[in-house]
Amino acid sequence: DKSKEEAYTPAGAGLLIPYATRYNNFMDYYNTYYNRIYNPGYYTSSTKYLFETSLYLPNQSSAGKLIFSAQSEAFDPDTIDQMAHSYGKTIAKEMKRKGIVQQRK
After folding, report:
1. φ, ψ for residue 37, nearest 5 deg
2. Spatial distance between the Cα atoms of 46 and 104, rounded to a whole number of angstroms
3. In what order do the strands lie in the sheet with 66-75?
């Protein structure tokens, strides 16, 4: 799955000074609230990819029995091909580790 996500960062979000802080002078007060009120916020956009793997038993007696399932999310990978390849390698290693598949000889 591929989806876009947007997040809004409000003005002065980098300022961690709480509203109830005591100020030494007017300029401390002014600078804190000026950034929160007058500086515009901004939007950031990212692309989210969801990878999902499901492996079912193929034989007649257990047809449809799920034996392995995995999901992974990635945000703005460098390349989707590289991410898909890495995901596939990770899934193969995990299935070998759990004894679901065996390496060819």
Report:
1. -100, -45
2. 40
3. 2-9, 42-56, 66-75
Give the separation between CA 33 and CA 71, rounded to whole angstroms: 44
> Which token pair is 32?
């804190």
CA distance 86 to 36: 42
Instruction: Give residue for tokens 């007060």.
Output: 29
| Residue 58 C-beta-side C-alpha neighbours within 13 Å | 1
Across 12-16, 38-42, 57-61, which has the greatest mean pLDDT?
38-42
Which pTM does this prediction carry? Answer: 0.55
What type of residue sits at position 95?
M
Cα torsion through 62, 63, 64, 67, rounded to 10: 50
47 and 75 Cβ atoms separated by less than 8 Å: yes
* Gap between the Cα atoms of 63 and 22, Å rounded: 69
